[in-house]
Structures are given as C-alpha cells and as structure tokens.
Amino acid sequence: MYPARRCSVFHRDLAAVCRFSLNKETHPKRFSLPASPSCHIAGPDGRKREPQEKSRCSSPRLASCKPACPMGSGSSSRLFGTLAQQNYLRDPEPQDSDQDQEGLERADPDQLLRECEKALQNRPARPHRDLVYPADPTQQHRHRNQQDTPSIRVMTWNILAQGNRPSIRVMTWNILAQALGEGKDSFVRCPQEALNWEERKYMILEEILTYRPDILCLQEVDHYYDTFQPILASLGYQSTFLPKPWSPCLDVASNNGPDGCALFFRRARFSLLHTSHLRLSARMLPTNQVAIVQTLRCRVTGQRLCVAVTHLKARSGWERMRSAQGTDLLHSLRAISSRPSGSDPETACRDEPGRGTEGLPVIICGDFNAEPSEDVYRRFASSPLGLDSAYKLLSADGQTEPAYTTWKIRPSGESCSTLDYIWYSHRAFAVDTLLDIPTEEQIGPDRLPSYHYPSDHLSLICDVYFRDPKDHGHRLT
C-alpha cells in the first residue's frame, strides 16, 4: 500500500466524477506535448525496471474497478445488445464546452503519470519508441541509424519547423478488451497475471499520458464509463463511446459490458460541431462493426476537420465484408465532410486548405483488420477524399507500411501483421512526426500482450498540421 496515493484522483468515487457535463474549459489552451525523451520508466534507484516472473504490484486498486455492467448470461447479452442498437437511431447532439463543468475536478497529468509509474514499478518498462520526423525519404531514418543522435534533437527541430502552425497529435490504439483478453483471445504465451486489469489499466493510461494526444481514438474499449471517460475528462478531454451491437465480450461471464470504439479530443484545442454514430453496412445489411465520426473546429486556427474511428470485421475469410464496410464508411465520410455542420458562411471552403471538392479534411483511425494487400486498403488509398496512410512515411521510399502493428501468438499459431492505420487528407495536412515501431527484440519472444505491453496491438501516433493555403496541392511523400 502506498499511503501517498490514498487521496489520488484514481481512488475517488468515479461515479461522482461522472456527474459532470463536458462543457467549459477552465485552464489555458494547451497544445501537443512531446513525449518524454526517455519512455522507459526508472525505479527509485534510477535503473530501468526489470521483468519479473510474476507481477506483484502492491498499489491499491481503483475504487471503480468493479464491473459497471456485470453480466454474461444469454438473456443479459440480448438485453445489452438491444440497448446498444439504440445508439444508432439518431446522432447525438454536440455538447457545449463553454458551460460550467459541474462536479468535474481537474487532474494534473504529471501527477497521474507518476501514479501509473509507481503502480507499475514491479513491471518491466514499455518498449522504448522514438518520435521520428519523416522529412526526406533519404534522411528520415537518419537518427535511427546513427546511435549518437538523440531523440530530443528531433523534437527540437520539429518545434522550430512548425513555426506558427501548431501540430495536432493523433493517437489510435486497439487497447484489447479486458473480457476478450482474459476469456476469448487465448494468448498462449502471455501469463494470465499479465492481463490483470488492476495493473493493465495503469499501463494503458501510462501510454496515453506519456504522449498526451490532442485526438485519441480507441478500439475494443470495455471500460469506458468506469475508467477512461472519467479519468480523461478530468484531464480536459471530451469523448463519445459507441459499443458494438452484439459485442463478443458479452459472452464472457465476467464481462464489463460490450466493447466498442471511443473518440476523445482536448476541449482546449477543439470545439465539437457534430457527432455521427455509424453502424457499418455490407451490401445494404447492417453489420456488427461501428464507427464514430466527429466534426471539430480547431480553436487555434478556426479550421474544421472530420475525425473518424472504426474497427472493421476481424478474421481471415471476411475480406469482402471488410471491403464493404470500408466502402460504407467512406461514403458516410464524404457526406458528413461535405455538409455545413454549423459553420459560418464567411468561413467557407476558401479558408480551409484541402477542402475543395473533397469536403472537409478528414483523419481516419482504427483497426482495419486488413493487410495492405486487401481491397479495403486499396479503396481508402484511392478514395476521392484524397487519403494517405501516415505510417507509410516511416519507410525508406515513403510508400511501404510497417512490417507489423500487431504481433501475437494464439493456439492457431503466430500472427505478425499490419492492421492498424492513420489515414489523413494529404492536401490539407502535412505529417510532422510519427511514433516509430518497436523492433522484434524489443517486443520479445512471447510477443504481445505481455508484462511490458498491455495490448496485442501497438499504439500509433502521428503529429499533423494544417498546410498553408499557399501550399495547396503539395504532397509529402
């Protein structure tokens, strides 16, 4: 027990915290913060945490760790599925972020990060990852190939290069639904103790707090109401959650409700204009996969953008369904990005670079469950929305996706593949930095998840900024 953590915001009654309305921003505007120069968490003696055979974290448990919806029977699954489908009947109304936030106590992100580190002091450190600037295909990996080039040099260069165009940090991550990790996904090389929610939630929050994105897109979220919504709201995020109509989590006896997609954004950086909850279709038939699309206005530049998060159908053999779901999402995005969404007539497309015939610029994040060779990938790459995949810029030619974004071992065998993407409108946005992919050695022989990483998918982070209107048409490749 750590006495210093007894009064922590992690241990408040989160039910009381949830009584807020996501409204007025009470602190000065903040922009994207760079990650810590060292992503390793050191112990009290300054040394890196070393792996343990078994996690023995003695930190107190979160007060809210009891399941919000402790159900798992067939009848309860049907009930929750029926309730979940009501989310698609109409789009939710945007909340006014300028009203008072009753009952919301603001938290210090640095303090929360320290609490995560303390709770995880008996776990090995997360894999070290650098923020990479893909300025030139021939030079973009210079700092990775030269051992004497520190990552802080890259960070400083980016700040100077941006000038008066502050970047937008976007993070996407399939965080692995707790019910699936413990009950259905069968990670044969991952000890059950490594999936313990009492510690795994700290690892997820530690990753988020380390990089502090402006926009956060999560998939497989089954602890939204009791963990992520209240904690991130106390850090200044506004959010929305959309569960799957028939979540596989509900088949697990100890589930915490259905999993789904969640989209968070900083209220200090953006104001919400419109939210669309989508149940994706395939050949006119509704499927079990969902997407959230939000139209935001940047408080710094006044420019608007559409942000989407999705999680397409999993498993081999469902390539055609993924393609149909992707087509449906692209069709919806074209319609949503083309409508006014509450904009003022004087801020029409002439002031928004990259809009043109494509509508508002878009950023699409998610677990597509599709390799780059699949049809759904080609549909996004050739879409009239003018999309590029950000993580191609990590490659030497700027045209090749990473070798993997997920690496796991199941009873059926080892799976190493690229399934996660950040798509962006290349005429409207330029890529500033990307969080690189850990090596095979860093991931370890037991792959993911593990004691040192909480999910079977890697988080992806991309810093983008609005292009100058004079640069319209220029494309970074």
From TrEMBL:
Alphabetized InterPro entries for the sequence: CCR4/nocturin_mRNA_transcr, Deadenylase_nocturnin, Endo/exonu/phosph_ase_sf, Endo/exonuclease/phosphatase
List, in alphabetical order, the Gene Ontology terms for molecular function in this entry: metal ion binding; poly(A)-specific ribonuclease activity
Superkingdom, taxonomy of origin: Eukaryota
Keywords linked to the UniProt accession: Biological rhythms, Cytoplasm, Hydrolase, Magnesium, Metal-binding
Q: Which Pfam families match?
A: Exo_endo_phos
Q: Which ranges carry the Endonuclease/exonuclease/phosphatase domain?
A: 171-457
Name its co-factor(s): Mg(2+)
**UniProt keyword Hydrolase, yes or no:** yes
Q: Does the keyword DNA-binding apply?
A: no
Indicate, by first and last residue, each region the UniProt record lists as having compositional bias (Basic and acidic residues): 45-56, 103-120
Q: Where is this region: Disordered?
A: 31-63, 89-147
Just give the chief location class: cytoplasm
Q: Where in the cell is it found?
A: Cytoplasm
| GO terms under biological process | circadian rhythm; nucleobase-containing compound metabolic process
Provide one Gene Ontology cellular component: cytoplasm
Family statement: Belongs to the CCR4/nocturin family.
Q: What is this protein called?
A: Nocturnin
List the source organism. Esox lucius (Northern pike)
